[in-house]
């Protein structure tokens, strides 16, 4: 488990897990007085903003690196009404759902590697940049997305298959980077080796290229 920085404010506590951060910079651009960039020592200041402003910063963090602990009178982070995974251009898979990854509760937000290069699998560590990974964030639906299911929320379980894809189970809307629905599913196998010709889905290329990554059962 990676280290989590815990900064206690008067009304809300901010949790920051650096290993999950993908440097989307929403925090330092949105509230540079709360998340102060390029300084030594203390850089997170919960009391520089209102409770609602801190909560908004956390909710807008796609990786789940920023979370908060509810104090008296502060609502906990709500689960999404519609579970989604957004396909980032040349980058990771951004999930927003009540997530259990390999059986462990991981909150509501996570960005998972799909280039195969991360040293922090299943999480993205931004090595897609230096590795020159290219993959569209706007794939064409292979078939009609289908009608919305009766239930669009609820738990989503993600399992890393050894040397293979991510096996995802639960109601999920697969969405392009610009918000276009690619598919609606209750089960999917999503590529994480970076080699599939059918991204974001697995097409078995991990076996052809000898992809190696830990997992619970063989992919």
Count of separate DSSP helical elements? 4
Unreliable stretches, pLDDT < 50, 5 or more residues? none
Order of helix and strand elements from N to C terminus: EEHHEEEEEEHEEEHE
Q: What general form does the structure show?
A: globular
Q: What is the number of independent domains?
A: 2
At the fold tier of CATH, the topology name of the largest domain is: Ribosomal Protein L9, domain 1
What is the correct CATH architecture of the largest domain?
3-Layer(aba) Sandwich
Protein described:
The strands form two sheets. Strands 4, 5, 6, 7, 8, 9, 10, 11 and 12 form a nine-stranded mixed sheet that branches. Strands 1-2-3 form a three-stranded antiparallel sheet, covered by helices on one side. The model has no long low-confidence stretch (mean pLDDT 92). It has four helices and twelve strands. It has two domains: 5-69, Alpha-Beta Plaits (2-Layer Sandwich), CATH 3.30.70; 84-218, 3-Layer(aba) Sandwich (Ribosomal Protein L9, domain 1), CATH 3.40.5. The longest helix has 9 residues, at 51-59. Strand 1 and strand 2 form a beta hairpin. The protein has helices at residues 26-30, 51-59, 127-130, 205-209, and strands spanning 5-8, 13-16, 66-69, 84-87, 93-96, 99-101, 104-105, 109-112, 156-162, 166-175, 181-190, 217-218. With 219 residues, it is mainly beta. The chain starts with a strand and ends with a strand.
């Amino acid at each position: 488990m990676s280290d989590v920085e815990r900064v206690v404010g008067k009304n809300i506590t901010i949790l920051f897990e650096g290993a999950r951060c993908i440097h989307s910079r929403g925090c330092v651009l949105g509230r540079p007085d709360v998340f102060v960039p390029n300084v030594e020592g203390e850089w997170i200041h919960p009391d520089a903003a209102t409770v609602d402003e801190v909560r908004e910063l956390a909710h807008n963090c796609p990786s789940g690196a920023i979370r908060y602990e509810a104090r008296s009178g502060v609502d906990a982070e709500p689960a999404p009404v519609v579970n989604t995974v957004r396909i980032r251009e040349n980058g990771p898979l951004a999930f927003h759902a009540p997530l259990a990854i390999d059986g462990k509760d991981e909150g509501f937000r996570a960005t998972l590697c799909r280039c195969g290069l991360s040293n922090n699998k299943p999480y993205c560590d931004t090595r897609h940049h230096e590795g020159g990974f290219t993959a569209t964030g706007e794939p064409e639906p292979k078939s009609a997305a289908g009608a919305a299911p009766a239930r669009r929320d609820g738990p989503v379980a993600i399992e890393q298959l050894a040397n293979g894809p991510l096996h995802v189970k639960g109601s999920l809307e697969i969405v392009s980077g610009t918000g276009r629905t690619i598919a609606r599913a209750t089960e999917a196998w999503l590529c994480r080796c970076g080699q599939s010709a059918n991204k974001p889905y697995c097409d078995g290329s991990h076996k052809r290229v000898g992809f190696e990554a830990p997992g619970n059962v063989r992919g």
